[in-house]
Amino acid sequence: MVRLITHNLLACHVRGCTTNNFPLAFKDVEIQLREAEFNQDFLRGFLPKLEWRALVDTAKSLNDQSLPDTPPAPEQMDTEFLKALHHVLLEIHVEEGAMVCANCGHVYPISNGIPNMLLQEHEL
Amino acid sequence: MSNEKAVVPAPDITGDASKYEETHVHAIYDEIASHFSATRYKPWPIVKQFMSSLTPGSIGVDLGCGNGKYMNNPSSIRTIGMDRSRNLLEVAKLARQDGCDVILGDVMEMPWRAHAFDYAISIATIHHLATHSRRVKSVELLLKSLKPHGGRALIYVWAIEQDGASKRVIPTTDVPQYQASGIDVLVPWVHNVKPEASTESSPPVYKRYYHMFAKGELRSLVVEAAHALQLHVGESGESNRSQRGLQIIQDGWERSNYYIEATTWEKE
Ligand SMILES: [Zn+2]
């Protein structure tokens, strides 16, 4: 499955593509929403490692506006915020479509929820 | 044991190693995925221990996740699975009740931000890479995937030294000259999907390529990869002037496999 938790980690790795290769842009996506197990400890621990800007912009590109432009300080993370973060990271499943590199234009197809990150020999 | 089921030395690999792996590893796993998956459910103790020691909030990657047997973790951590076999990934994505994130990828590539992960595991994967330099490169990429300080790695590979209980017959005596640097073998997979079926047509046998590691070989592989990344191998401390390094936490042998656990460090 491609959820935003994974999308926030993936980057284009075509040889020579080292700047502006993150985040990849979703294209022609088919989305399913599925409930996931809520775990505060995970969210609080994981949040500092997120590329926040990329997460917010990508969520917006999938019509989810629930996240603030800057993350709240740890002591101000209320349940409402954590639930929204949980939903964006773990409950939006991109089942079909593609991810496109803004720098080199490489297209990484997604089929049946599995993104194909393999490159051709000449791209390595 | 019929000849068909014996482990045999692999013929010398000539030409493109990645193409060789495509034929002798990836294509076979795609073919045998469902049957293979049904046989892979018992976690190895060292891996289990490692997974249960991870800090809540950790994000990790399972390089060569297969059917996802190490991805059914408590929801306080999340593991992204990568494999070359789409058919195994179709199984792996269901390893957790609420789903697992998996990606189709190769351990010779790194399709994510460098240093993005808190942990990386490579369980029974790099012994399918057909040359020493490819195995080193894959470990380099694994280490590069880890955060610079406190990133944890666990690697597990098949050993020449087999458990007494193992059913495998290993042709080590045939090829003693290769033992110091491991041996390359073809391991048959008898694709016996219908055990009750008539024996008139015998099940297909797929021969998978394995590099069986010699004692000490995995550790020196990790050291070589760390050095290639300018990482000091050893403890952080005043005894060395390096800024970044890799500490080997433990290494050993368990149930016909060698394993190694290591942690990255960076001085402030
Ligand atoms: Zn690119």
TrEMBL record, chain A:
Keywords: Methyltransferase, Transferase. CDD domains: Trm112-like. It holds the Pfam family Trm112p. It comes from the Eukaryota. One of its GO terms (molecular function) is methyltransferase activity. GO terms for biological process: rRNA (guanine-N7)-methylation; tRNA methylation. Interacts with TRM9. Belongs to the TRM112 family. This is Related to TRM112-subunit of an adoMet-dependent tRNA methyltransferase (MTase) complex. It comes from Serendipita indica (strain DSM 11827) (Root endophyte fungus).
UniProtKB/TrEMBL annotation, chain B:
It holds the Pfam family Methyltransf_11. InterPro entries: AlkB_tRNA_MeTrf/Diox (IPR051422), Methyltransf_11 (IPR013216), SAM-dependent_MTases_sf (IPR029063). GO terms for cellular component: cytoplasm; nucleus. One of its GO terms (biological process) is tRNA methylation. It comes from the Eukaryota. Residues 61-144 form the Methyltransferase type domain. The keyword Protein transport does not apply. GO terms for molecular function: S-adenosylmethionine-dependent methyltransferase activity; tRNA (5-carboxymethyluridine(34)-5-O)-methyltransferase activity; tRNA binding. Keywords: Methyltransferase, Transferase. SUPFAM superfamilies: S-adenosyl-L-methionine-dependent methyltransferases. The keyword Transmembrane helix does not apply. This is Related to TRM9-tRNA-methyltransferase modifies uridine residues at the wobble position. It comes from Serendipita indica (strain DSM 11827) (Root endophyte fungus).
